[in-house]
Amino acid sequence: MNLELFIAKRLITGKEHKISISAPIIKIAIAAIAIGVVMMLIAIASTAGLQLKIREKVSAFNGHIQIYNYDNNSSDISVVPVSIEQDFYPEFKNVDGISHVQAVATKGGIIRTEDTFEGMLAKGVGKDYNWTTFKEYLVEGRLPDFSAELNNEVLISRIKANLLNLEVGDSFFAIFLKDNDASKPPNNRKFEIVGIYDSGFEELDRDNIFIDIRHIQRMNKWAANEIGNFEVFIADFDQIEEKSNEIYGAVLSTLDTQNIKRKYYKIFEWIGLFDFNTALIIGIMIIVGGINMITALLVLILERTRMIGILKALGAANWTVRKVFLYNAAYLIFLGLFWGNLIGLGIIFLQQKFRFLKFPNPEEYYMEYIPMDISFTTIFSLNIGVMLLCLLMLLIPSYAITRISPVKAIKFE
Fold first, then answer.
1. Is 205 in contact with 159 (CB distance < 8 Å)?
2. Is 157 helix (H, G, I), strand (E, B) or coil?
3. What pLDDT shows up at residue 74?
């Protein structure tokens, strides 16, 4: 029989424990642990969710890694075409962890209506384009279908539609200058809006519209097998730098690569700061919870001074008596973790389902609601970490037991 655990159980389940002076202090300590766990879970889930959603939005417009011609001058507009006949297209077999490769082309232009005009960046896509993410951003109409014959369907952002006073079903003319000779009459194309999207990312929504890539190929006088660049999607975003280097080594020497972390480095540096804020919150909550547990442990020791004296008089070692109180404290920490997880994970689940927590300034965070994302591994690691750190913090105050004299403790009132 584990003597220390047996005594700890009797202390926990005894009636004296529930009506003792330490009872309210113990409840406060449990509540502090629970509130701390709730705050930590929400901080981790909201940070991970926000980082994930921003990555998804940036990659929806660019892929994770772009492959383009060296002579493209790092421009968002496709200048020098790339042959679509590459070893890595349509399936990248030389590098593991690649989920999708798609061919695109971009061309700058102006949208003109009877009342106004707006600049835009037309992104030409084909039947290989991955529309998965845009299904979530679609607010009106449907996604365009470029799998059959060349058509004039276009997907436009809500920001651009509002500026031009356009709706689903409306048509507009787009003007594209000729890259080789600006003195010649521009190319005119008439498009019909079949869908309106809103990703919440104003920097990208403001300019991008989606058209059939064959329009850009014709206007640029490219062959059917020439495109602007390739967009590569990887399975694990955490490996983006590693995969960028692998892809760069796998493609022709005339091609260059760039990933979205480098292209939008300011955005990714900004969301990287969230990790520091989360770590700070976790540190503060653990310290607060630990201090409350130290207070509760010292009160328990003071309240059970006579018991400590009796155990020592019967021959119990200091470490044996300390373990009794550490077992007791571990039980209280477990209660705090249980209620904290129940409440915290409940809030996270409800937020994922109903999105009731909103940003007061959504334009600064590129979305209206606070996204939540958390894994079982993170939850497990957090709980184990909190338990171990709190118990380590309690080792020092439990040392007070060694200073208690059995004779004086038995006489203690």
1. yes
2. strand
3. 61
Strands 138-141 and 117-125: unpaired
Question: Could you say which DSSP state residue 369 is in?
Answer: B
pLDDT in the model for residue 318: 85
Q: Are strands 226-227 and 82-83 parallel, antiparallel or unpaired?
A: antiparallel
> What are 71-97's pLDDT values in tens digits?
765 667 888 899 999 999 989 988 999
**What average pLDDT does the chain have?**
88
154: closest CA among 74, 86, 208?
208
pLDDT value, residue 228: 93
- Is pLDDT above 60 for 34? yes
Q: What does pTM read for this prediction?
A: 0.86
Strands (DSSP E) found in 10-97: 65-69, 82-83
Report whether pLDDT(50) > 80: yes
Type and span of the H or E element at 41: helix 23-62
Write the CA distances from 366 to 57, 89, 359, integer angstroms.
9, 32, 10
Asked whether 366 and 57 are in contact (CB, 8 A), the reply is yes
Sequence-ordered list of residues with C-beta below 8 angstroms from that of 159, at least 6 positions apart, any chain: 198, 202, 205, 206
Identify the sign of the CA torsion 348, 350, 355, 358.
negative
Phi then psi for 96, rounded to 5 degrees? -75, 155
Residue with tokens 């709730």: 38
**The pair of three-digit structure tokens given for residue 154, joined into one six-digit string:** 């276009």
Q: Where are the beta strands (DSSP E) in 158-244?
A: 171-176, 187-197, 208-212, 226-227, 229-234
Report the alpha-carbon distance of residue 140 to residue 155 in Å, rounded.
Answer: 10
C-beta of residue 329 within 8 angstroms of C-beta of residue 391: yes
Collapsing DSSP to helix, strand or coil, 373 comes out as coil
pLDDT value at 334 more than 90: yes
